[in-house]
Amino acid sequence: MQAQRVIFLDTRHEQLPLAMREAYLADVQAWVLGTCRAAVRAGGCSDRSALGLIEALYGHRSFEGSLARWRSIGPHASIRREFQLSDDAVSLMLLAAAPRLWGALTHVYAAICMPGRNFVVSPLLLSMLLGSRPATLRELSADAPLVKYGLIAIRPSGAILASSEVVCRLAGS
Hey, what long-range contacts does 129-135 have (CB within 8 A, 24 or more apart)? Predict the structure, then answer.
């Protein structure tokens, strides 16, 4: 019987290798786009042209299961473990960081939430994307880990901003 070899990748301190980082970011982006598509189809969007905008900017990428393979080794996984985040909190963190990772997503988010107005990531937008207002409000409360540890900031205007550290860690830089 041949001994099995186990590969352990400790992403708490080491970055993902370049090829893995590119695959990770592509999967996160596809998951965010899939979440946007689902929000539009669920009727949370006031402007159906958001689907056309997604297709024009990003094409017809699939998102089924793409983020699941990163649950243990992706940069968001190390943040989840470090700060004891729930699955909803991780989803909100990724959704809040996405426009800073991919600038064109600001147009998609704006089309989903407030066509024709200045864009901000807001609790309303995040609850539409997450599909649960109570979960969104719970994870954005002052004593919840996302806010308590500064992973996201909630501006006086209500705008939500992912911290630079979170964006850098997700991007692998």
Answer: 129/35, 129/36, 129/39, 129/95, 130/35, 130/88, 130/91, 130/92, 130/95, 131/38, 131/39, 131/42, 131/44, 132/88, 135/88
What pLDDT shows up at residue 87? Answer: 95
Would you state the pLDDT for residue 118?
66
Q: Is the pLDDT of residue 119 over 90?
A: no
Give the β-pairing of 152-154 and 160-162: antiparallel
Residue 20 half-sphere exposure toward CB, CA atoms < 13 A = 13
Nearest one of 124, 119, 156 to 137, comparing CA atoms: 124
Listed in sequence order, the residues at least 6 apart from 36 whose beta carbon sits closer than 8 Å to its beta carbon are 50, 54, 105, 108, 109, 112, 129
